[in-house]
Structure formats: structure tokens, C-alpha cells
Amino acid sequence: MARPWTATFNVVMMAFSAICFLAGAAITAYWVANAFTGAAAGLALGGGLGLVGLGLTRWERTGGTLHYTPNRWLVLFVTFVVSARVLYGLWRSWTVAEAGVHGTPVVLAFGIPESLAAGGIVIGYYFAYGW
């Protein structure tokens, strides 16, 4: 079981990560349209999933400790979202490089807002769950 100061430290660090994530997305939005919107939407969706995850978590009190088991299907879904986005990014990179990009900047061909949204889901989920 985590000590209270450890749990507080984790939540503070996740909040710091979310702030840095949004700041990076805001800077990226200068070059890539919808980067900040994708990141913010991902954080919001992840936060909602984290709250759902809390409701689906199994809590057990044994002796003087409290144990919890997160819902495995929800954790699997969050993991799948990130894995699918990484695989899609690799596939998209391969097809764009193979076909060549004509008339569009290369950085726009890789779906950066969607990648930021997937990352935001993870950060939002763990922030809400840790809170």
C-alpha cells in the first residue's frame, strides 16, 4: 500500500506532467493545426475514463490495509489505444515515405494531433485515477 505522501507526490507529478504536456501541445500548435485541441480532448477523455475506472475498481479491506484491483478491461483499452496509435503511426510513416508526400508538409502527414490525443488519454486516465 502506498504511503499518503507517496500518493500525493504521484498526483502532483501527474498534474505537472499534464501541464507540461499541454504546454508542449500549445507550442506544437504553432506548426500543426489542432495539436492543442487533440491533446486537451485526450486529457478530458482520459480523465473521464479514470473516473469510470474508479467506479469499476475492486476494493478490498484486509486487516489494516486497503487493496485495490483496477478494472482489467479498462486498463487493456487504454493500453490498446496507445499501441494502436503507435502501430498506425509506423504504418502511416511507411506509406507516406514509400509514396512520397506531394503538396503537403511532411510533419502534417503523420497525424500529430491524434498522437497527442492518445498520449493525453493515458495522462488523463492516470491523473484522475491517482487523484
Describe the fold and architecture.
- This protein has a two-stranded antiparallel ribbon with strand order 1-2.
- Helix content is 72%, strand content 8%.
- Helix 1 packs antiparallel against helix 4.
- The radius of gyration is 18 Å and the shape is elongated.
- It has 4 helices and 2 strands; from the N terminus they run ααββαα.
- The protein has one domain (4-130).
- By secondary structure, the chain is mostly helical.
Distance between the termini: 15 Å
Strand % is 5-15%
- Our Rg estimate from Cα atoms comes to 18 Å
List the domain count as a whole number: 1
**How can the largest sheet be summarized?**
2 strands, antiparallel
Characteristic terms for this protein:
131 residues; elongated; 72% helix; two-stranded antiparallel sheet; mainly alpha
Summarize the topology.
Blueprint: H1 4-28, H2 35-56, E1 58-62, E2 65-69, H3 72-99, H4 112-130
Antiparallel strand pairs: 1-2
Helix pairs in contact: 1-2, 1-4, 2-4, 3-4
Characterize this entry briefly.
The protein has 131 residues and is mainly alpha-helical. The protein has helices spanning 4-28, 35-56, 72-99, 112-130, and strands spanning 58-62, 65-69.
